[in-house]
Specification:
This protein is of the alpha+beta class. Helix content is 34%, strand content 22%.
Length: 518
C-alpha cells in the first residue's frame, strides 16, 4: 500500500504522523520545507472545549458556536467530530511539549471571535509555529525509521484519475525539473487558494491555488468557493497583508472610527454581547459600513492601549514586535490603522466527514478542503481543522486503501502561470469579489475573466482562469447574504439557499448539506 501526501503543513504532517504511528509508510511531498508552511504563520490559538476557565464549556457549546458562526452551512457530522476530537488534540500537543500558557487550573484559554466561552488555547501569538515545531520533531522520528519519506521542493504536476478513481500522482522536482510518478492513495493537504488573490491575502505566497485548479480540471468537485473570509484587522506590507491577530481583541483591543471628530467604538455600541469579538464576517462588514458614512473618517483603528503591560509581555510580545517593525508604531501606546484583508478560504475541495473527495482514492484535508467552516470560519478552528482533518483523512485511507498497479511514468513538463497572468486574474477578483457584492459587479467580473481566455499561454494559466471563473459563478448562484458572502441586491439570508454550492468541470449547482446522523 502506497500513500502520498501533497503538502507538509499541519494537515499534511498530522496525516503522516497518523499513518506512521500505525506502521504505514507514506511519501510527504511539499514545495518547501515544513518550517515555511503557512501553518507556521497562524497566531492566535487552537480551539478545544477543555473547560479550564470555569465557564462550563462543552463539546456541545463548541459545536453550536461553530455551526452558528458558519451560518449552518457546514457539515454537521464533520463539525461534531471536529469538536469532539479537539480536547485530545490539544492535550497531545501539550504532552509533546508545546508551551501553552498555563495556570494552576491547567491550560489558559482566551476569548476568540464568535464564541461565547473562553475556548482558545495559545502560545503567546505564535501558536501555529509552536504546533508545527512539535509535529515536525515527532514526524522526524518516523523519517529516521523509513516510514515517512520526504520529497521537498516538489510540486504536484498531475493527478492520475481513471474512471473517477485516483491511481496516483506525478510530482516535479522544482530544482531539477525531473518528474517522479507514484502509484497509490493520495491525500491533498495543500492549503488555501491565495494564488487567486495575489497581494490581497494574509496567506503565504506559496499557496498558489494550482492544486485546486488541477482538481477542477480533472473532474474533482469543489464547493462553496464564494465563501472567502476577510479578516477585519490586517495591514498592508510588501506583496501581501499582515495579520493583526484576533487575540489582540480577545485580550481587550477595541475597534473605533473617528465620527464627527470623536472616537466611536462602533462594535461595542452595535453588538453589546460579543462587542469586538463578533464573527469576522460581521466585523469586516461593519467596518465597510461605518467608513462609508458621511460623518465618519475612512480609516478604522484598533486601540490596544488599554491592554495591561503584563498581558503584552506574557501573551502578545511578538505581536507588538511585528507592529513596531512594519508600522513603526508601538501598539501599547498608540492605536493601529487596520483594514480587512482576505485571510481564509472556507470553500475548496468538497469532502465528506471522513475527508473523501468526489473521486475515489483521493482525500483532502486542511484549508484546501471544504466541510467544517460553512459560510464563515471561527478564529481558532483553522489549526484544529488542519490537525483533526489530516488525522481523519489518514484514518480513512487506512481503512480503504487498496494496492494499485504501477502507473506509467508521465513526461509532462511542469508549468506555472506567469506573474503577469496571475496579476490580471487577481486584479479582477480583487475588484469584484469584495466584502459586499452585487450581481452587476459579479457579471462584470465574469465578462472580464472571459476576455482573458485568449491570453492564457499554457495549461496552468487556463486552469487558474477556470478556477477564477468558477468562483464567480458560485457567487452568482448564491442569491442571498450568508456569512462571508454578502449580496447588496439579496441582503437577507434565504433558508432555501442553506445548501452547498458545488462546481465541477461543466456545471455549478446546489447540493443539500448532509443530514446529521445519530
Amino acid at each position: 500500500m502506497s500513500i502520498m501526501i501533497i503538502g507538509a503543513g499541519l494537515a499534511g504532517l498530522s496525516a503522516a504522523l497518523t499513518l506512521a504511528e500505525q506502521g504505514t509508510a507514506c511519501t510527504l511531498v511539499s514545495a518547501q520545507a515544513s518550517e515555511r508552511a503557512q501553518s507556521v504563520m497562524a497566531e492566535g490559538g487552537i480551539n478545544a472545549a477543555l473547560n479550564t476557565m470555569g465557564e462550563d464549556d462543552s463539546v456541545a457549546n463548541h459545536v453550536a458556536d461553530t455551526m452558528r458562526g458558519g451560518v449552518f452551512l457546514a457539515d454537521p457530522n464533520a463539525v461534531r467530530g471536529l469538536c469532539a476530537g479537539a480536547p485530545a488534540i490539544v492535550e497531545k500537543f501539550y504532552a509533546l511539549g508545546v508551551p501553552f500558557s498555563t495556570n494552576q487550573n491547567g491550560i489558559i484559554q482566551r476569548n476568540f471571535g464568535g464564541q461565547k466561552k473562553k475556548r482558545t488555547a495559545f502560545v503567546k501569538s505564535s501558536t501555529g509555529k509552536m504546533l508545527m515545531t512539535a509535529l515536525i520533531d515527532e514526524v522526524r522520528k518516523y523519517e529516521v525509521r523509513g516510514l515517512v519519506k520526504r520529497l521537498p521542493h516538489h510540486r504536484l504536476n498531475t493527478l492520475h484519475i481513471e474512471n473517477n478513481t485516483c491511481r496516483g500522482v506525478t510530482v516535479t522536482d522544482t530544482f531539477s525539473g525531473q518528474n517522479i510518478t507514484l502509484s497509490g492513495s493520495v491525500i491533498l493537504a495543500c492549503g488555501g487558494m491565495s494564488g487567486l488573490f495575489e497581494g490581497l491575502t494574509t496567506g503565504t505566497t506559496q499557496n498558489t491555488a494550482e492544486v485546486a485548479a488541477l482538481c477542477l480540471e480533472q473532474g474533482v468537485e469543489l464547493a462553496n468557493l464564494e465563501m472567502i473570509q476577510y479578516h477585519p484587522t490586517t495591514i498592508g506590507i510588501s506583496g501581501k497583508r499582515l495579520l493583526i491577530t484576533e487575540a489582540a481583541r480577545g485580550e481587550g483591543g477595541r475597534l473605533f472610527v473617528n465620527r464627527s471628530g470623536k472616537p466611536w467604538y462602533f462594535m461595542e455600541e452595535k453588538y453589546p454581547e460579543l462587542k469586538n469579538l463578533m464573527p469576522r464576517d460581521v466585523v469586516s462588514a461593519e467596518m465597510v459600513a461605518v467608513t462609508a458614512r458621511d460623518d465618519c473618517e475612512k480609516q478604522v483603528w484598533l486601540d490596544m492601549t488599554g491592554i495591561k503591560k503584563k498581558v503584552w509581555q506574557s501573551r502578545l510580545s511578538d505581536l507588538r514586535a511585528q507592529v513596531m517593525h512594519y508600522l513603526a508604531i508601538d501598539p501599547q501606546r498608540q492605536p493601529v490603522p487596520v483594514s480587512p484583508g482576505i485571510h481564509y478560504f472556507m470553500g475548496g475541495i468538497r469532502t465528506d466527514a471522513a475527508h473523501r473527495t468526489s473521486c475515489k482514492n483521493l482525500y483532502a484535508a486542511g484549508e484546501c478542503a471544504c466541510q467544517y467552516h460553512g459560510a464563515n470560519r471561527l478564529g481558532g478552528n483553522s489549526l484544529l481543522g488542519a490537525v483533526y482533518g489530516g488525522k481523519t483523512a489518514a484514518q480513512t485511507v487506512l481503512q480503504e486503501a487498496q494496492p494499485i498497479d504501477p502507473i506509467a511514468p508521465c513526461a509532462d513538463i511542469y508549468r506555472e502561470a506567469s506573474p503577469r497572468f496571475r496579476a490580471a486574474v487577481s486584479n479582477i477578483l480583487g475588484r469584484y469579489l469584495k466584502i459586499l457584492r452585487c450581481e452587476s459587479e459579479l457579471l462584470q467580473a465574469q465578462s472580464e475573466l472571459n476576455a482573458l481566455e485568449p491570453s492564457a499561454q499554457n495549461a496552468a494559466e487556463a486552469r487558474l482562469l477556470r478556477l477564477a471563473q468558477a468562483t464567480v459563478q458560485c457567487a452568482l448562484l448564491r442569491r442571498e447574504s450568508r456569512g462571508a458572502h454578502r449580496r447588496t441586491d439579496y441582503p437577507d439570508t434565504d433558508p432555501a439557499c442553506q445548501k452547498q454550492t458545488v462546481v465541477n468541470r461543466t456545471n455549478v449547482f446546489y447540493r443539500d448539506i448532509p443530514k446529521e446522523t445519530e
